[in-house]
Amino acid sequence: MPGWIWWVAALVLISIEMLSGTFYLLALAVAAAVGGVVGLLGGNFSWQLFAVSITGIVGCLAAYYWHCKGGGKPQKQEAFDVGQRVQVLNWNDDGSARVSYRGSWWDAIAATPDTPHRDSMIIVEVRGSVLVLGENPLSVPR
Fold first, then answer.
1. Residues 97, 88: contact at Cβ < 8 Å?
2. Confidence band of 142 (pLDDT split at 50, 70, 90)
3. For residue 49, what are the contacts with CB-CB under 8 A and spacing of at least 6?
4. pLDDT at 84 over 90
5. Residue 48's closest CA among 56, 30, 36?
6. Using one digit for the tens of pLDDT, what is the confidence trace for 37-56?
7. Is the CA virtual torsion 41, 47, 52, 54 positive or negative?
8. Confidence of residue 28 (pLDDT cuts 50, 70, 90)
9. Which domains does the chain have, with CATH numbers?
10. CB count, 10 Å around CB of 11?
11. Helix 23-40, helix 4-20: angle, nearest 10
12. Which residues pair with 121 in a beta bridge?
């Protein structure tokens, strides 16, 4: 088998990798490129296949361990909503509130149980789709 076929396989795998974002296909693309290098150096198909197999296994294991250690998790980003003032429409008996913010209705809660319930409050934290409200930006619960 000619070595250039491994290069074509590497290009196809990299193209698919760019659409998926998993690092496993990148590891397989590198393995295919290694098979292409072995083919260009004159290695027969057995050596090419051996090099692709070993490189693919090592690359996939490296991607797996990187993912398990948290390398694939996005970094926590500070929400740009923190510090913005909102108008509280009403406070519910359970301590939650309904606010109008950015042209939409949001669920909100007080930062601490002793935070006074006012008509105008500051966003101190965002938990998913729930706004945490306080009196000032420094009242973030710790």
1. yes
2. very low
3. 35
4. no
5. 36
6. 999 999 899 999 999 999 99
7. negative
8. very high
9. 4-68 (no CATH), 85-134 (2.40.50.140)
10. 13
11. 170
12. 86
Q: Are 50 and 34 in contact (CB under 8 A)?
A: no
End-to-end CA distance of the chain: 63
- DSSP-based three-state secondary structure for 124: strand
Cβ contacts of residue 109 below 8 Å, gap of 6+?
Answer: 95, 96, 97, 130, 131, 132, 133
Beta bridge partners of 101: 104
Position of tokens 């491994």? 6
Kindly state the tokens that stand for 34: 């290694």
Please tell me the distance from the alpha carbon of residue 17 to that of residue 8, in angstroms, as a whole number: 14
Query: What are the angstrom distances between the C-alpha of 36 and each of 1, 11, 26, 101, 111?
Result: 10, 11, 15, 56, 59
